Amino acid sequence: MHHTNHFYGHAHIFARYCGLDRRRPPRINGYLQHGWNALDGFGPREKYVPVTPKFVWTDTMRRRGWARGRRDYYPIGAPWLYLTQMEPPAVPEAEREGTIWYPFHGWERQHVDGDHRRLIDEIREVERGPVTVCLYWLEFGEPEIRSVYENAGFRVISHGARGWMKKGTDPLFPHRQLAELRRHRRVASNRLSTAVFHGIAAGCEPAVYGDPMVLAEEDPMHGGVARVRRLWPELHGAEVDLVTARQIAAEELGVRYRVSPEEIRTVFGWSGETNDL
């Protein structure tokens, strides 16, 4: 199984959905989209074994991939949709409070350059309730970044590590994110991202504002911030129409492409797997 299929415990979510042992998900016969982007759901320079299935969230991702000369796409909806289906809300909507804020982050091979203090000033200008800042595990592990938000009086957390080469994967990452999103009234970020769409699906009011920061050697194939703002202008701003946001999130997460456990077993190559629970 390609190691990115383990990112954020996504293989574990599908194993549970199929009634298999979520602690030891079987090998997925293909590549699983692990995050939202404005391309085809995968990295712009990633190479794949020919004719190997690519499991994406929506048909839009498939069409973009075809435009790039790639084939063998299967829209199945985002793993997040399957998790929220299996985890009903525990907190009444009336008890939601404050904003969970996701600063744009880098990853192991690309770091973000930006002014966190300037971003804090922007957050203070907009938010009227308590603020939780959720940092990616890399930024959370850097005291000089984490302390800036802590000293600003924000609650600072991390959902955990996504893992790398099948090591260090925290399968409870999405569960922690879901619990946090469901306790907050708003979800916000300085870039439209997976977390924002997850938040909308979890019942949060979204916002995208503030300095978008710069990703080191950001690939121009994605079109950058300008393209994202041009394609999804309705989701940018300190206040966003919630009805419109929910419609867009449902499309981007692939609500209509969700499939049954039996179908997942078939396309993932899990038909012969036994129930270990």
UniProtKB/TrEMBL annotation:
It comes from the Bacteria. This is Uncharacterized protein.
